[in-house]
Amino acid sequence: MTRFAFSILLAAALAAPVDGMKPPAGSLEETARQVRKEILTLPNYGLFDNIRFTIEGDTVLLTGYASRPTLKSSAANVVKDIPGVERVRNQIEVLPLSRFDDEVRARAYVAIYGDPALARYNPNRGVPLMMSPARIAVGITNDPPPGNHPIRIIVNNGHVTLAGVVDSPVDRQVAEARVNNVFGAMSVSNELEVVRSK
Fold first, then answer.
1. Which of 183, 178, 100 is nearest to 137 (CA)?
2. Does domain 99-194 have CATH number 1.10.1060?
3. CATH fold of 3-94, please?
4. What 3-state DSSP class applies to 84?
5. How far apart are CA 118 and CA 165, in angstroms?
6. Mean pLDDT calculated for residue range 101-107
7. Is the fold of 3-94 the same as that of 99-194?
8. pLDDT digits over 39-95, tens only?
9. When comparing pLDDT for 21 and 40, which is higher?
């Protein structure tokens, strides 16, 4: 039985078609490309979410974290409609809805994407990175900054996990150091992967 595992962002970074070539329809690679595309283009998928998937035959296993309950069901619904997918096992964990976690998310976002060494990763360059009390009160999870952020910030009861991709080991260390200084972050787990250009 074939087993294929992906991190959404890592797969997106590595799976750019070569010379416009696409994998053959129905192949494992084509199914993975479609799953990745469907998840990345969900309107409620943002930088505070990290969904991974594994393909085993005609079954897709979804894992990872969703900051909003609707994302878990949305991801399963779009994946089940992909040709060649017969079954979806949805093991995405919905993160607790808490004001405390939202405050940690907001502070971690500013710490990472507002840092001069990491600012190039911010798809919203030029936008002020201050989090107003009103925005925090509404909840940054309900209104996350737009764009595809390569560094994902997962907060679960104050414990922060950094996921996604960066260009260098130094950037990986800087991101972790910035979040270690965030008020309210009880611990930081650094799962950032370094992707070197070819």
1. 100
2. no
3. hypothetical protein tt1634 (3.40.1520)
4. coil
5. 12
6. 93
7. no
8. 999 998 999 999 999 999 999 999 999 999 999 999 999 999 999 999 999 999 999
9. 40
